[in-house]
Amino acid sequence: MGGRLVAQLYPDLGVLLEAELRSIVATADPKRIDFVLAILKAYDGQPFIHGLCKEIAATLPPDDERLDSLDDALESMGVTSGEFGRVEALKERRDTIADWHDDDREPVRLYAERFVRDLNRAIAAEQRRSEESYALRRLEYGDESEGES
Prior knowledge:
Elements: H1 2-9, H2 15-26, H3 30-41, H4 50-59, H5 66-75, H6 85-96, H7 106-141
């Protein structure tokens, strides 16, 4: 709830808020990091949160359950449209963190590898689901091009 309010008050995060959130992450206090993650989730995975997300990935141990919340913040998206809209959105998310593999900090690189691997699985599953849904609709309603002659 609070994260949405912050996102409404600061729609593009802003330099001052980002600096404050970075200082909170630097404390490595789990409850304070949870607070920052709640705020980041409200930004629907926008690229401007990536710097903070990297800081969190660098701060947390590789097996920390909070990394799942970091996944949520990065994967979060608004409404998608079209048969394969979610597939395309997930691919975009995957592509936006490509430079994380070159980060100097090993925890960030390890996180990026795991995140991309998980996203690839999600993309494959969503692709299958979308194809099945599309095929079922075509069977149920017929091929729209059949009526055109």
